[in-house]
DNA sequence: CAACTCATGTAAGCTGTTACATGATTCG
DNA sequence: CGAATCATGTAACAGCTTACATGAGTTG
């Protein structure tokens, strides 16, 4: 089962983000940014739907100088719905990787092009690992676990590529040699 | 830049899949299945668009007993377009993970529920690693690299969770103790 | 004989994003 | 003084998936 925008909003509300604006930040720069996304166009309609279903309550909050906001609170029914959704068999993680697709055409690339692609991918993983390591103020055990996991897995991933990129380059050499045989067959 | 359906079809064609039906298999069960997806509704219109742009050619192929098929061939212009698309700065890998979202609410789960979630996630990684290791008949260096990378990273990921799940459970205990202090303060 | 494979294609629908409208305030 | 931040909301659009139409042949 895919996690839909309503469930994601419910989760964000449960995690302490209590306005539409704040929920967006949770998915843009906040704790969910690395494994889910959600934008205004989905959030506001979702909150209204949740309100109609009684899964959240809402009270307007006037502020001086700033626009009024609507502060949402998850209800008991909402918490049950969230739990139920999270316990349902989850869809397996969906990875959409342009790098991998590109890498599957490594044999079509010039050495410099491939090198740049790998450099970018390695750097991307190390940067993400560093970014995760720098996060602080994380309050829940699950988030702490996920951050450590992300950082360690990203580092291991980057290291794996560094350790195996030479083998890839050799394999490409061999592949090309096999496909474009030497004209002079007397040697090797 | 995201890889659109036309570029993905061009790639599949370059990789040797030469009908709409075969291209779908490449994304459903074939070499691209783990990092991209594409279905009929996108493939057939994309092929027609590519044909109109001169990036592919097409000749009908009659078969006895089976429906006629259209065999597509990528042109030189098509190969250039594919290369150009792959060299463009790629969007960073997008991970949509229901497991991670669920795990961020680990402190709300009963021990058995959390345990099942982690078991499923670990098993999913080991299963994928095994599945990748079982693949044979891979002809290009890039694909061989990706398969080894996927298998090794998945195994390392699964191992990481096994080695750190106890820490998560302890952290949850500590979190709950801090939030629901003992009524009798005289002991520990 | 039901169900699946081969094979192309379209229409409807779902889900989500982008961009805009609105408007005060604060920061550089 | 322009740009960003706070704050809600909608309309238009993009992109992809699902389901269907069609139909012969094969597998269990």
UniProtKB/TrEMBL annotation, chains A, B:
Species of the source: Rhodospira trueperi
Phylogenetic placement of the source organism: Bacteria, Pseudomonadati, Pseudomonadota, Alphaproteobacteria, Rhodospirillales
Recorded GO MF terms: DNA binding
Keyword check for DNA-binding: yes
Annotated Gene3D superfamilies: Winged helix-like DNA-binding domain superfamily/Winged helix DNA-binding domain
Keywords, sorted A to Z: DNA-binding
Domain Transcription regulator PadR N-terminal span(s) in chain numbering: 10-83
Pfam families: PadR
UniProt name for this protein: DNA-binding transcriptional regulator, PadR family
């Amino acid at each position: 089962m895919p996690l839909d925008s309503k469930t994601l909003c419910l989760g964000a509300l449960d995690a302490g983000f209590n306005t539409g604006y704040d929920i967006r930040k949770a998915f843009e720069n906040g704790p969910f940014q690395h494994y889910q996304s959600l934008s205004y166009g989905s959030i506001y309609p979702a909150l209204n739907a949740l309100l109609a279903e009684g899964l959240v309550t809402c009270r307007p909050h006037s502020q001086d100088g700033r626009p009024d906001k609507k502060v949402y609170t998850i209800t008991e029914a909402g918490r049950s719905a969230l739990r139920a959704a999270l316990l349902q068999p989850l869809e397996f993680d969906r990875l959409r990787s342009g790098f991998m697709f590109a890498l599957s055409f490594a044999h079509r690339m010039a050495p410099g092009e491939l090198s740049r692609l790998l450099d970018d991918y390695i750097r991307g993983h190390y940067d993400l690992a560093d970014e995760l390591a720098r996060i602080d103020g994380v309050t829940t055990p699950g988030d702490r676990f996920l951050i450590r996991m992300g950082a360690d897995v990203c580092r291991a991933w980057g290291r794996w590529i560094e350790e195996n990129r030479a083998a890839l380059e050799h394999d490409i050499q061999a592949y090309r040699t096999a496909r474009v045989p030497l004209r002079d067959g007397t040697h090797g």
